[in-house]
Amino acid sequence: MSEKILFKYIDYPDQDRIETYIKNGGYTALRKVLKEYQPEEVVDIVKASWLRGRGGAGFPTGVKWSFLPKDGNKPIYLIVNGDESEPGTFKDRQLMEYDPHQLIEGAIISAYAIRCHTAFIYIRGEFVRPAEQVGKALQEAKDKGFLGKDILGSGYDLDIHIVRGGGAYICGEETSLMESIEGKRPLSRQKPPFPAIEGLWGCPTIINNVETLSNIPHILNNGAEWYKSFGTEKSPGTKIFCLSGHINRPGNYELPMGVNLKELIYEYGGGIIDDRPLKAVIPGGSSTPILRADEIDVNMDFESLAAAGTMLGSAGVIVMHDGTCMVSALQKLTKFYEHESCGKCSPCREGTNWMNKILKRMLKGEGRPEDVDLLYDIAKNILGRTVCPLGDAAAMPVIGFLDKFRDEFENICNGGKPKGTIHFPFN
Amino acid sequence: MYLSEETREKIKALRDKYPTKKAALLPTLHLVFDECGYLGTDQLDEAADVLGISRLEINEAASFYTLFPKHKVGKYLLQVCDNISCSLRGADNLVGYIKEKLGIEVGDTTPDGLFTLWTVECLGSCGTGPVMQVGDRYYEKLTREKVDKLLDKWKNGGEDGSSKEPKQSDR
Ligand SMILES: Cc1cc2nc3c(=O)[nH]c(=O)nc-3n(C[C@H](O)[C@H](O)[C@H](O)COP(=O)(O)O)c2cc1C
Ligand code: FES
User: Fold this and answer.
1) Which ranges in chain B are annotated with CATH 1.10.10.1590?
2) Average pLDDT for residues B42-66, to the nearest whole number?
3) Does domain A238-321 have CATH number 3.10.20.600?
4) B134 neighbors B118 (Cβ within 8 angstroms)
């Protein structure tokens, strides 16, 4: 087993309690930072570590922080994104539930670095237990003087509030998330202005994913060079890969960035259930283009997957064996995006509905030969034409499935029977 | 009055916690849901009045959030994930099984008011699918046997899914 950073103590009994967390080295990074570093120095270290956002886009965290205006009298906000709703992704839940102090310490250090005094942790509404765990941990941290006024005698003040979501995928998108915290109907906002300039209540705001910030204490404890010794040159560090679907050992695996996908599935995940042949893999959560079985000899880092025509996304690896009907599988995704579109932009609102309608028609055996091209055309026309990337997220899987498995869609539209044995009822 | 004094006090306490009153809206929805089990227009209007925001604002936001039922549901709201990873693990068969067992369609409530069945989107628990949420808790790696046991327990007055269960989820 390779060395773990984030999951090192995840199975440790009572790691969620502050005493245990401290015993295992917790809050030493915070003490060190408050004693030894100016905020800008923390930003520089994080920049040098080349930590990249784990929420999907892979933007370098330190670079994002440095976009904040250097002067100005508006308050600066930090938002921790724990909305985790991308199908195939279930890592942030575990980080919040089992090692909440790691996240909180990361959030405090990050807030200090960006000179923020009020931070929010936005947790999806369904995650009741993780929200309770984080809430309890915040109280413990406050009692120990790691939060609140004059933290550890440094003169630095910080409050962290939890906001629980209401069951909406779009609220994971950073601008909708801010609308949601502001108490509005959470429709996405046009960018620019970017949140770092004009975010929550019009103030400069940084939004980072739970996994991203959980790395921060380790980087500050051990240095940027240490962090860069993991993973690849351009995608340093470890990554939590979420394996699900037709795999023998589904679950979360923390491994260095750049681990080979085939190895991930066959060595770590124990291969395909019932030893069946693999058919396809979605490598980075439902919005990332699908790979055929013959394309899985690829490394799981931002660059390698981009070169393979797909994305690392949130690293939700969804595995499908030879019995899976691709038309059925894709319809599960279009149904999701139709349900989750916020309805602001016409291409996304109408397009997701239309794509799902066509796929349902195909599954009923009522597909028309021209439907395959039509579906492709709709997806292409959503791409890049919406305010937020949910439109792209809905279009990319459709394009990917059609590029890789077009014959199955054509077959079904020409009166053929669906391939495979796994067909889902559809709605 | 649709809301208890206690809930009204909690909403009032939220009013000044954030830079704007409106920012207390989403936490208020949770408070109303916790007390009533659903968000009806009457409850929402009253909450808006307590909070001091317009009734339209609260209804407009509330209607967006699918976590909260908008009308009364059964004592146990079974929310079964039927997104991709759970489906690959047999979620759909399980939904069919529950439908048959309870004699209801998705979206319906049993005549005794005990169970409502919903299918929902990914619950962020794909590695332990199929999964359903009932109240505060996730039930993971579901099989027909597990479903049988749970339904029996709840039919026989077992503990309310919305509280007091040992909440640690499977891994
Ligand atoms: C539709 C949509 C849903 C998203 N959902 C999430 C989410 O659940 N969690 C998350 O961290 N980022 C999500 N993101 C990405 C966020 O907008 C944002 O880029 C991210 O939280 C930034 O954090 P990072 O730089 O640490 O990755 C989503 C983006 C889109 C377009
Ligand atoms: S697909 Fe069911 S929990 Fe994610």
Assistant:
1) 5-64
2) 97
3) yes
4) no
Of B67, B87, B168, the CB nearest to A126: B67
Query: Which stretches in chain A have pLDDT values below 70?
Result: 1, 421-422, 425-427
* CATH number at A326-413: 1.20.1440.230
The CATH architecture that domain B76-170 belongs to is 3-Layer(aba) Sandwich (3.40)
Q: At A320, which helix (H) or strand (E)?
A: strand A316-321
Q: Does domain B5-64 have CATH number 1.10.8.60?
A: no
Band (pLDDT 50/70/90 cuts) for residue B163 is very low
Give pLDDT, residue A416: 87
B126 lies within 8 A of chain A by CB: yes
Q: Looking at beta carbons, which pairs linking A389-393 to residues 24 or more positions away fall under 8 Å?
A: A389/A173, A390/A169, A390/A170, A390/A173, A390/A188, A390/A337, A390/A340, A390/A341, A390/A342, A390/A348, A391/A341, A391/A345, A391/A347, A391/A348, A391/A351, A392/A287, A393/A286, A393/A287, A393/A337
Ligand 2 contact, B61 CB (< 6 A): no
Q: Which of the four CATH numbers 3.10.450.50, 3.40.50.11540, 3.40.190.170, 3.30.565.10 does domain A18-228 have?
A: 3.40.50.11540
pLDDT of residue B1: 86
* Ligand that lies nearest to the alpha carbon of residue A89, given by its number in the listed order: 2
Q: Ligand nearest B141 Cα, by number?
A: 2
Tell me which of B80, B81, B88, B142 to substitute to probe ligand 2's pocket, judged by most ligand atoms within 8 Å of the beta carbon: B81
Q: How confident is the model at residue B162 (pLDDT cuts 50, 70, 90)?
A: very low
**Ligand 1 atom 8: the closest Cα is on which residue?**
A84
Please tell me the distance from the alpha carbon of residue A237 to that of residue A258, in angstroms, as a whole number.
9
Query: Where in chain A are all domains bearing CATH 1.20.1440.230?
Result: 326-413
Q: Using one digit for the tens of pLDDT, what is the confidence trace for A346-370?
A: 999 999 999 999 999 999 999 999 9
CB contact under 8 A, A183 and B64: no
Per the CB < 8 Å rule, is B65 touching A250?
Answer: no
CA distance A9 to B113: 44
- Per the CB < 8 Å rule, is B92 touching A126? no
Q: What ipTM was assigned to the predicted interfaces of this complex?
A: 0.95
Overall pTM > 0.90: yes
